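User: Just a sanity check before I run the rest of the batch. Below are the structure tokens for the first item. I only need the designed sequence back.
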């Protein structure tokens, strides 16, 4: 695994790359890629960082780990390449809530880079996964790294909106300074839980209300 990350982010995270856990993480990830089918493909592991510069972040969405279905994950949480059909069910539920919340028609294009360029940082808490094996890279060390990312964002930025969907994302709340940032929580958009609070959460309109209240442009969801 070659750590290729934008200079903007590298300056923020440079201390993490020199820590022993990160060297161990690199070893584990490299071994996984040599042994089987791992997603996203190597050049896209840090795609979320390249797609949204540190000083451009307005919103943070936390996912769990990449889609394990081959061809789906490309480094942004909940996002898929444009040619992926049908959409993953969680992403489809996100689009349904957007339609209900702000009246925007459901999309057939699941590539969320269009959000990232507007300042939505789409971070999975684990950045790699074996094909067909959800959570297979849990405890590799990614969680230590992404916790440090969340803490750096919280510490160095102000007036951001954090969208935490599901128990694993909500567990990251203590890493975020509530006196500086807005945290919105609900259940995961998965078909198993979306009906228990994701539908009707109105996180997309609420996020834009917060942004505009701080004099920032809203996100075109």
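Assistant: Here's the designed sequence for the first item:
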């Amino acid at each position: 695994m070659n750590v290729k990350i934008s200079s903007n982010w590298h300056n923020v995270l440079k201390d993490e790359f020199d820590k022993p856990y990160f060297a161990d993480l690199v070893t584990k990830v490299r071994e996984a890629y040599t042994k089987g089918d791992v997603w996203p493909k190597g050049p896209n592991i840090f795609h979320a960082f390249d797609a949204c510069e540190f000083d451009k972040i307005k919103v943070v969405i936390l996912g769990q780990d990449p889609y394990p279905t081959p061809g789906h994950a490309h480094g942004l949480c909940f996002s898929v390449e444009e040619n992926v059909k049908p959409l993953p069910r969680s992403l489809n539920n996100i689009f349904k809530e957007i339609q209900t919340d702000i009246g925007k028609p459901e999309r057939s294009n699941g590539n969320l880079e269009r959000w990232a360029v507007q300042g939505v940082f789409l971070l999975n808490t684990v950045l790699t996964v074996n094909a067909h094996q959800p959570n297979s890279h849990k405890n590799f060390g990614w969680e230590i790294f992404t916790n440090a990312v969340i803490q750096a964002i919280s510490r160095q930025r102000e007036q951001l909106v954090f969208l935490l969907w599901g128990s694993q994302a909500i567990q990251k709340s203590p890493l975020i300074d509530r006196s500086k940032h807005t945290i919105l929580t609900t259940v995961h958009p998965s078909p198993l839980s979306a009906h228990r609070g994701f539908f009707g959460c109105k996180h997309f309109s609420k996020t834009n209300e917060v942004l505009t209240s701080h004099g920032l442009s809203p996100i075109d969801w």
